[in-house]
Design brief:
Blueprint lengths: L5 E6 L2 H13 L5 E5 L5 E3 L2 E3 L1 H11 L16 H8 L10 H15 L4 H11 L5 E4 L6 E6 L2 E4 H7 L6 E7 L8 H7 L4 E6 L4 H10 L3 H7 L4 E4 L2 E2 L2 E2 L4 H7 L6 H7 L6 E5 L12 E5 L6 H16 L4
Helix pairs in contact: 1-2, 1-12
């Protein structure tokens, strides 16, 4: 894709952050805006924690933990060890460096600053050239109805390690939430050249963004092509509970099901070479490419595939 303008990426955590980094590296400085899911946000130990925002912050700054995909590189765990000796809750692990992010965010939120403003300051201090936005400054919380009853997302994802079967997903507060102002403006901007739906879990990472009031309609009406990348490769998710959740909700665990999930929103769907260039029952253009991002070169190559696919499908 050539020409002036900027790219808008919708992302969850680990998988989305990998592609966001690839896009950031191949695009000119300042040409990428990333909108993060905040449905996973919660309060723990009195601290305001934004897991997907932080994964994107650390990944784009080059200080992420490559072994886990979350948290900071070269982390220490003195706080958690001391907390355990006092009988505190340790199911959600907070490294010492990561803890500083949560403490400072919480302090500033309580002082009346918005999550958007805090995030923008953090990304500038960490040397990130891409703009990073929460999907909304209003609270939206992902909750799951499971065979063990209703669970908040982090209770399901971390404390219960995705063990309960999922029957229903809701995004509390989404209908009343307002899109982050720059996000809303970006979708209507004539300089928008591409919207990328990153290979994040469509059910719990992308759907919360789309559930914010007005976002789905704005995405349909935006002047730029929308390209999605499948998080499913040959019937399996690279990481996380995507495949398990799809099966439990009665969806086929394949790339075609993800494409159908985004029906009416996307102009092009990027699938892995293992899934072929054509998907049965999918009425959208598809491009087959290597979507497994194991190296930095993989991230950059997939970013270029996405940009080239968009260039051929201008609205």
């Amino acid at each position: 894709m050539t020409g002036r303008g900027f790219v808008l990426a919708l992302s969850g955590g680990i998988g989305g952050a990998k592609l966001a980094l690839g896009l950031c590296r191949v695009l000119p400085p300042g040409a990428l805006t990333v909108v993060a899911n905040t449905g996973d946000d919660f309060t723990h130990l009195g601290l305001s924690i934004s897991p997907d925002l932080d994964t994107l912050l650390y990944t784009l700054a080059g200080i992420d933990n490559p072994a886990t995909g979350w948290g900071r590189r070269d982390e220490s765990w003195t706080f958690m060890a001391a907390l355990e000796t006092l009988g505190g809750e340790t199911w959600f692990r907070l490294g010492d460096g990561d803890l500083a992010t949560h403490v400072e965010r919480t302090r500033r939120l309580r002082a009346g600053e918005s999550l958007s403003s805090i995030t923008d300051d953090f990304r500038r201090r960490l040397g990130i050239t891409a703009r990073l936005l929460p999907m909304s400054d209003d609270p939206v919380r992902t909750r799951l109805l499971t065979d063990e009853g209703w669970l908040d997302f982090q209770d399901y994802f971390v404390r219960r390690r995705c063990a309960p079967a999922v029957r229903k997903i809701v995004f509390e507060g989404a209908a009343a939430a307002r899109p982050q102002p720059q996000f809303r403006a970006a979708l209507a901007d004539d300089d928008l050249r591409l919207v990328v739906i990153c290979p994040s879990n469509p059910l719990i990472s992308i759907d919360p963004i789309l559930a914010v009031a007005g976002v789905r309609d704005a995405l349909k009406a935006c002047p730029a092509p929308v390209v999605a990348v499948s998080p499913i490769i040959a019937g399996r998710a690279v990481k996380g509970p995507t495949a398990k959740m799809m099966a439990e909700l009665g969806l086929p665990v394949d790339a075609a099901a993800v494409a159908r999930h985004y029906a009416g929103l996307i102009d092009c769907f990027i699938v892995d070479e293992a899934d072929g260039p054509a998907l049965d029952g999918v009425e959208v253009a598809t491009v087959a490419a290597r979507t497994l991002m194991e190296s930095m070169a993989d991230r950059e190559t997939l970013a270029r595939v996405v940009l080239n696919a968009a260039g051929a499908r201008q609205r």
